[in-house]
Amino acid sequence: MFNRIVIAARFKSLIVMIWLMATAFRIGYTDGNEYSIKAMFLLNFMKYVEWPAENNQGTFRIGVVGDSEISESLLQMIAQKQGDSRRIEVVKLGSGNQPYCQMVFVSHTENSRVDEWIKKLGAKGVLIVTEDLKLNTGSAAINLITVDNKIRFEINQSALRVSNLKVSSRLTELAINVR
Q1: Neighbours of 152 (CB within 10 A)
Q2: May I ask the CATH class of domain 2-178?
Q3: Could you read off the pLDDT of 16-70 as tens digits, one per residue?
Q4: Which residues pair with 167 in a beta bridge?
Q5: What is the C-alpha end-to-end distance of the chain, expressed in Å?
Q6: What is the dihedral of CA 13, 144, 109, 86, to 10 degrees?
Q7: pLDDT recorded at residue 4
């Protein structure tokens, strides 16, 4: 009986994820909600990425590097998810001492410094997500891109392996490019 409940819950979660991403793909965006859609992607990535056990305890922190409206969008969405069991924080990252973050979003304003962040965090169990960056072998694990006025994402499997992260096959099926 318990297995049926778990399977049903996972199936519902998958359906919601697919619906949310399909909706984001279908509707595209206007200037007002691009970062709301990107924030939705980040929060959904949390559900389909497996972190090492030592990095997956307590508060889940999402770090934001560079100037981006995504911080505000994330905070609004997190406030709406008050009933969730895991606490989520959004922190602004800079060049000083940084709190540990399970996920780091590097804004397109910092694309020239992505390699620095990858060297600093890449092998520490951190999911590095960029936007509008050309994927290459030393790149971030996930890259959000705009295609035909719609937000899509690419996955870099080698960056995930270096970070000791595992991505659900459900997520890789939704990516437009998997390397």
Answers
A1: 18
A2: alpha beta
A3: 455 455 544 444 444 448 999 999 999 999 999 999 988 878 899 999 999 899 9
A4: 49
A5: 39
A6: 10
A7: 64
If you average pLDDT over residues 73-99, what whole number do you get? 84
The whole-angstrom separation of Cα 5 and Cα 10 is 9
Three-state DSSP class for residue 120: helix
* Cα–Cα distance measured from residue 44 to residue 6, given in angstroms and rounded to the nearest whole number: 19
Residue spans per domain, the chain = 2-178
Predicted local distance difference test score (pLDDT) of residue 26? 42
DSSP for residue 112: G
Q: 82 vs 103, which has greater pLDDT?
A: 103
Specify whether the CB–CB gap between 165 and 156 falls below 8 A: no
- Residue whose C-alpha is closest to residue 42's, from 81, 85, 3: 81
Query: What's this model's pTM, rounded to 2 decimal places?
Result: 0.80
Alpha-carbon dihedral angle through residues 59, 63, 68, 73, given to the nearest 10 degrees: -10
In angstroms, rounded to a whole number, what is the distance separating the alpha carbons of residues 69 and 101? 19
121 CB-contact burial (10 Å; exposed 0-12 / middle 13-18 / buried 19+) = buried
pLDDT at 10: 59
* Residue 82 clears pLDDT 80, i.e. is over it: no
Give the phi and the psi of residue 158 in degrees, each rounded to 5: -65, -40
DSSP state of 33: T
Count of CB atoms within 10 A of residue 97's CB?
5
